[in-house]
Amino acid sequence: GAVVSQHPSWVICKSGTSVKIECRSLDFQATTMFWYRQFPKQSLMLMATSNEGSKATYEQGVEKDKFLINHASLTLSTLTVTSAHPEDSSFYICSARDSLFPDTQYFGPGTRLTVL
Amino acid sequence: AQSVTQPDIHITVSEGASLELRCNYSYGATPYLFWYVQSPGQGLQLLLKYFSGDTLVQGIKGFEAEFKRSQSSFNLRKPSVHWSDAAEYFCAVGTGGGNKLTFGTGTQLKVEL
Known about the structure:
The complex is a heterodimer of chains A (about 120) and B (about 110). In chain A, the strands form 2 sheets. In chain A, strands 2, 4, 5, 6, 9, 10 and 11 form a 7-stranded mixed β-sheet that branches. Chain A is globular. With about 120 residues, chain A is an all-beta fold. Chain A is built from no helices and 11 strands. In chain A, strand 7 and strand 8 (about 75-80) form a beta hairpin. In chain B, strands 2, 5, 6, 10, 11 and 12 form a 6-stranded mixed β-sheet that branches. Chain B starts with a strand and ends with a strand. The relative contact order of chain B is 0.34. Chains A and B meet through strand 5, strand 9 and strand 10 of A and strand 5, strand 6 and strand 11 of B.
C-alpha cells in the first residue's frame, strides 16, 4: 500500500519550453501533496504544498508563476515548469499524504529534469 | 522553526557490522520524527517513524530508532548491516498533521564486503 508514482521518470527539454510532471497516489486518496526539489548530493527542499481543489502554498523564494501546481483530484497533482532554463535542471520529488492517515508522507520515485 | 542535523556526511561499515546513524533535531513542541532511505536516482522510502509512545521504534528492513527527548536525538540503528543497505539516509522532523517536513542533509552509507 501507499504507493506514489511520478511521470515521467526523466525528461530532457530545450530552454524556454514548459514541462509537466505528474504525481499520483495509486492506492489511497491524498488531499495534500508536496513538491520537493533535490540538487545533486543535497537534501530535499520543499517547494510547495498542494491541496486538492485549492491554490498551492509556495515556500519562500519559490516562483509560483514559474512552477505551476495543479491538484485537480484526490489522486493527482501536477507540477509544470514554465519557460524552463538550465538552472531548473534538478531532481523533482513529490510526496502524498494519505487522507485517512495524515501524519506520514509517502514519496514518489522522482523525476530527473534536464534543460538544455 | 524546526531543523535537523545529521552530523555524519559519509559512513562506511563492513557487512555484518552494526550501524548507528545520528540525527539531532530542534523543535519547540513534540516532534514527529522520520527516517527515510534513498537509493541512487530513486525517491524516498519510509523506514520508520515516531509520533508518541514507546521511544524505541521498529521499522522495516531490520532498522530501529530511539527517541531521546533529553538529547533531542533520534538515532537510527541496525545490528547487522547488509550490502544492500548502502544508500542515502535522511532524518526528518515534521509538525503535527503531516504538514511540511524538514530534512537533514543526509548520511551516505557505504558497505564494505
